[in-house]
């Protein structure tokens, strides 16, 4: 029988299927269920500085006697410390009561909090840390390097203050994603997650209001992750890739591993089908490997990546005209 073990961020995983950061990993009971279903690791729901700040502002707005600076400071410190303490306790519990790697996740907007949260998370016992970062550049007078430097600075700053491995969860809005990933590896990141699924706006034409587009991914969303995993895994060899978005079945896992992913993160499909989907995915991967004669994941990882193709251009956008010119 084929062996499914793999290594991600220096961590030994029993298989490459990871539960992505979301409300699915917000409690110990949920984490246990995913472990029982066979998950190789879990990424905890992100600790959002913005959300903590919002809760603090709401408490101050609702509170009486908040015209005193001392009272405001007390509420701010209490609310922040309480939320962070809850998160750290989840890490400690998960490490004590499960046997799979626990990867923490943070999303901040101030430099001090990135390092402070990261250090506390390491002390709590997390096996690794995922930096959940996405910035929309709306300044027409700025250039790409200014935007990208934020990512490099955060990666460098955090990796210098913690010893646990750090990965960067990225969006795809970069002028040169390959160069960005390469620079992040130089800045200390041990892995990247391709890609972040972030809030997308929509417009209600009847009420003239901004609404939210689909929160969950669809199976077709795998195309972007597949393309860039195949390209980046060949162009940047010294960093692990965890492919994410559009992973809805076992074949999706196989495809992304063939493209060169080290691990695959699942989220939206678990909301729809529950933890048992993890078991199905692992079963499909096992059956497929046995049928193809692959005794380990390393035997086929990257077998269909960019450089392995006789015509690598199949992963390039220029092929759009070739394949769709018949549609007139």
From TrEMBL:
Full protein name: dihydrouracil dehydrogenase (NAD(+))
Q: Which InterPro entries match?
A: Aldolase_TIM, Dihydroorotate_DH_1_2, Dihydroorotate_DH_cat
Self-association and partners: Heterotetramer of 2 PreA and 2 PreT subunits.
Q: What is its EC number?
A: 1.3.1.1
Q: Which domain of life is it from?
A: Bacteria
GO MF entry, a single one: dihydropyrimidine dehydrogenase (NAD+) activity
Q: What does this protein do?
A: Involved in pyrimidine base degradation. Catalyzes physiologically the reduction of uracil to 5,6-dihydrouracil (DHU) by using NADH as a specific cosubstrate. It also catalyzes the reverse reaction and the reduction of thymine to 5,6-dihydrothymine (DHT).
The pathway it acts in is: Pyrimidine metabolism; UMP biosynthesis via de novo pathway
According to the UniProt record, one GO cellular component term is:
cytoplasm
Q: Locate the Dihydroorotate dehydrogenase catalytic domain: which residues?
A: 4-288
Q: What class of enzyme is it?
A: oxidoreductase
Gene Ontology BP annotations = thymine catabolic process; UMP biosynthetic process; uracil catabolic process
SUPFAM superfamilies in the record: FMN-linked oxidoreductases
The protein's organism comes out as Xiashengella succiniciproducens
Catalysis performed (reactions): 5,6-dihydrothymine + NAD(+) = thymine + NADH + H(+); 5,6-dihydrouracil + NAD(+) = uracil + NADH + H(+)
A Pfam family matched by this chain, by name? DHO_dh
Q: Which UniProt keywords apply?
A: Flavoprotein, FMN, Oxidoreductase, Pyrimidine biosynthesis
> Which residue windows are coiled coil?
none
Checking Gene3D superfamilies in the record gives:
Aldolase class I
The keyword Oxidoreductase belongs to this UniProt entry's keyword annotation: yes
User: Cofactor(s) for this protein?
Assistant: FMN
